[in-house]
Amino acid sequence: MKNRLRPLLAACALCAVAAQAAAPPTPPGYACATPHPLATQVCLDQLADGGNAVDAAVAAGAMLAVVRPDTSGLGGGGFWLLHRAADDLDVLIDGREAAPGATPPAAARSRAAAIPGAPAALDRLARRYASRPLATLLAPAIRQARDGVAVDAALARAIVAQAPQLSWAARKLLVPDGRPLAAGAVLRQPDLAATLEQLAQRGRDGFYEGPVAAQLLKAVQATGGVWSAEDLGRYAVAEREPLVFDYQGYRVTTAPPPSSGGVALAQLLGQLEILGWRDDGSVAARHLWIESQRRAGGAGAPDLGDPDRVRVPTAERLSRAQLRALAGRIVADRATPAASAAAAAQLAPPAGESAAVPIAVLDAQGNRVAATLSLARPFGSGFVAPGTGVFLNAAMDDFSPAAAGPANAPAPRKRPLSPLAPGFVEGPRGLLVFAAAGGPRGVATSGAAISAWTRGLDLAALVAAPRVALAGAPPRAQFESGALDAATRQGLSALGHPLEAVPAYGELQVLGWDVASDTLSAAADPRGSGRGAAVRTRAAP
Questions:
Q1: pLDDT grade for 18, boundaries at 50, 70 and 90
Q2: pLDDT tens across 233-275, in order?
């Protein structure tokens, strides 16, 4: 895994530009892409002021907790994939939520909250990998929470949709006087500002111990929750070796279990490579795309779970022999029958959107971060612990039903699976940093983005391309407007594929460093209100 990028980039530069003796060792500048302009701005501010990619990612993540409380926050968790250029280190910071210690094997899961991991992860990132103290990185978010932020259209829609399921403290914040905050209204969060201040001053202990922890426990236990002070005190971030696989001459680095998404992404692209797949928009290509997703091991796979608690056969699942076996079961002229599909390892997520925010950062030294943070559902459990401003996650719902097998069954202090899988792609063209939301459909979003990057598509076109993903229960090919023309829909239906037109979904943030031209670009998904920006700091060749 050591020294991968520079030899790959050097080889690319030698082939593409004969006059160059070697590729440039570092990017020509820095770049950020997040789902909200204010988060992107604090990211850019950190980099412009000499901070590194981790500084920028921590500041952006904290800001997103303030400006998009429907999708992420201190009450949730996530994965932060880091690359440190100085020693070529790749590491995944696993801040996934964990089940409480009193969790029974058959725990009720609907909208229940696990122990949050985001505060501990932010503290770990700042202490071990950032160049600035946590207090400095959280300061912009604290000011924004106290001064207020204008509600954007996405947040306004989420408030209206989720208002009936919000706790009284959440309704007081978002539905004052019985009227949901509309786009343009100012949302002030003084309690969240105070909680962020405790985290800034005391690190992880400011959240998992002391007055904030006491308020969390009081509120959760009053509603029948089983959290304990020991649960909060014992929560620990995990650092994991990333999952690495090859695709079409490129090296993909992404999240390992407890991410199910990384394994599913590797299986999806592995099958397509074996099949010689080309994304030409034909019925045959779409058929292979859907069928390969059907066989990619997702959240319903019986042998995927928390690697600290169960043996996860990642290597076996991604062996060439296994990928050939999966691809070999695809029939060219018909879809997998429903009865057979039920027995296959398949992506079968619920039809609704998950709540997550993707972040992509690259600094001028070559450090980079791809992160995806989540509450599991919009506003998580819908519950705000009074006095904290913290929306608690719904991550207990990510444990599988008993029928899916024991690997992802609920258990004390166990992490549930997550489809989130941010990553890096390195190879002949250069470097792609990607992170996607959209629940298990994010696997298809990421797979399509990687394929498009390797084919030379520019980032704006890559993020805007209409999407097709196998999703729902029972699974069907869900497609955005413009993704399938009438003839393709007719052809897929004739092969036996159930189809479903859906509104635009998911969110993808990407950064690209094209080595041959020494250009840096960034793109935010046009389905959202985010912003991607690249700043050149080195003179053009």
A1: very low
A2: 999 999 999 999 999 999 999 999 999 999 999 999 999 999 9
What does the DSSP assignment read for 381-409?
A: TS-B-TTT-PBPP-GGGGSPPGGG-GGGS
Measured CA to CA, the distance from residue 419 to residue 503 in angstroms comes to 20
Taking a C-beta distance cutoff of 8 angstroms, is the pair 435, 372 a contact?
yes
Tell the burial category of 309 from Cβ atoms under 10 Å away from its Cβ (0-12, 13-18, 19+): middle
| Radius of gyration for the alpha carbons in the chain, expressed in angstroms and rounded | 22
Strand pairing partners for 476? 471
DSSP string over 75-136: TSEEEEEEEETTTTEEEEEE---B--TT--TT---TTPPPBP-HHHHHHHHHHHT-SS-HHH
Report the distance separating Cα 199 and Cα 119, nearest Å.
7
In the predicted model, what is the mean pLDDT of residues 449-463?
96
Write down the pTM of the prediction: 0.93
Task: Name the pLDDT band for 343 (thresholds 50, 70, 90).
Answer: very low
> What letter represents residue 488's amino acid?
T
pLDDT of residue 501 exceeding 70, the answer is: yes
User: Is residue 64 helix, strand or coil?
Assistant: helix
pLDDT mean over 37-50:
98
Please classify residue 212 by burial: count the beta carbons closer than 10 Å to its beta carbon, then call 0-12 exposed, 13-18 middle and 19+ buried. Answer: buried
pLDDT at 39: 98
H helix intervals, 437-528: 441-454, 459-464, 486-495
| Domain ranges, ordered by start, for the chain | 38-83+95-240+373-405
> Given strand 468-471, what is the order of strands in its sheet?
468-471, 476-479, 499-501
CA–CA distances in Å: residue 442 to residues 336, 419, 451, 537: 22, 7, 14, 32
pLDDT > 80? residue 111: no
CA 333 – CA 284 distance, rounded (Å): 8
Taking alpha carbons only, the member of 418, 425, 416, 479 closest to residue 443 is 418
Give the pLDDT of residue 302: 81
- What's the first-to-final CA gap in the chain, in angstroms? 30
Q: How far apart are CA 71 and CA 84, in angstroms?
A: 27
Note whether 360 and 370 are within 8 A (CB): yes
The beta-carbon contacts of 13-19 under 8 Å, at least 24 apart in sequence, are: 13/515, 13/516, 15/428, 16/515, 16/516, 17/516
Residues of the chain above pLDDT 90, percent: 84
Give yes or no for a contact between 478 and 541, defined as CB atoms under 8 angstroms apart. no
